[in-house]
């Protein structure tokens, strides 16, 4: 590649979190790392991403049982001993299964899916369902209150530990599908949302689908958020806005959008 040296990557926001970063990097070389994954995730969520590498061994569960074979792993609860539960609200996999979200399948005419990305808070159910249709889905997630990444891996699926601050690690025009639910909502800054949507557009192939399974926001903000999605100028296979009945003054947005074929300039 024309380089004879290596250069370490580190998120520029790390320098604004000096105290937390120093705590994260306070470890003994060659020993077991501190039990500080929540500190690492805090740094990532606030923009310190990628984190600097460390020269220590990551902690593992005290007892680890081999995962189930692939023909069983999708819908069978893993052994609870395969995860360290000390810093989670859930204390077993049955707790996670109880928080599963309903499955909805939207069919669009003349679409062939091979690979895609799911950005959702959950246990990889979307990827598991799509595997039944012979579609490979990478599940991007962070561990908010539960070991979602561990659960996804134990189901024989591919977890990607990723925050919305990071550019997607895929090349241009390579994904057939991007699905998201309960990951982007009305809390997100409009400028950041625009950067995210342009990045999603970058990795989606022409004719690929952007599936927004749910997007919540205040009614007064709905127009601005919808304009951000309309900016993509995608073909609408589904576009629905309904009131969110359990919250006053909130709206829920669903859509399935198809990336157009843009001519070269």
From TrEMBL:
InterPro entries per the UniProt record, alphabetical: Prob_Methyltransferase, SAM-dependent_MTases_sf
Transmembrane spans: none
Name under which the protein is recorded: Methyltransferase type 11 domain-containing protein
The species this protein was found in: Glycine soja
Lineage: Eukaryota, Viridiplantae, Streptophyta, Embryophyta, Tracheophyta
């Amino acid at each position: 590649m024309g380089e004879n040296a290596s250069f370490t990557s580190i998120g520029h926001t790390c320098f604004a979190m000096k105290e937390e970063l120093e705590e994260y990097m306070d470890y003994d070389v060659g020993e077991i790392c501190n039990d500080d994954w929540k500190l690492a995730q805090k740094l990532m969520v606030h923009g310190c991403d990628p984190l600097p590498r460390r020269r220590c061994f990551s902690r593992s569960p005290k007892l680890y049982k081999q995962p189930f074979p692939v023909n069983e792993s999708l819908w069978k609860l893993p052994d609870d001993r395969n995860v360290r539960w000390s810093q989670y609200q859930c204390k077993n996999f049955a707790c996670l299964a109880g928080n599963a979200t309903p499955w909805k399948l939207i069919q669009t005419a003349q679409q062939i899916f091979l690979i895609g990305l799911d950005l959702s808070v959950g246990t990889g159910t979307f990827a598991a369902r799509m595997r039944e249709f012979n579609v490979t889905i990478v599940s991007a997630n962070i561990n908010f209150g539960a070991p979602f990444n561990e659960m996804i891996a134990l189901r024989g699926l591919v977890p990607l530990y990723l925050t919305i601050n990071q550019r997607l690690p895929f090349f241009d025009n390579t994904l057939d599908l991007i699905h998201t639910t309960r990951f982007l909502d009305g809390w997100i800054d409009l400028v950041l949302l625009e950067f995210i949507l342009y990045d999603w557009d970058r990795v989606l192939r022409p004719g690929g689908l952007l599936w927004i399974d749910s997007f919540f926001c205040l009614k007064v903000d709905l127009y601005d958020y919808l304009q951000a999605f309309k900016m993509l100028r995608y073909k609408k296979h589904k576009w629905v806005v309904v009131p969110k009945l359990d919250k006053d003054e909130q709206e829920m947005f669903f859509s399935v959008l198809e990336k157009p074929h843009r001519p070269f300039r």
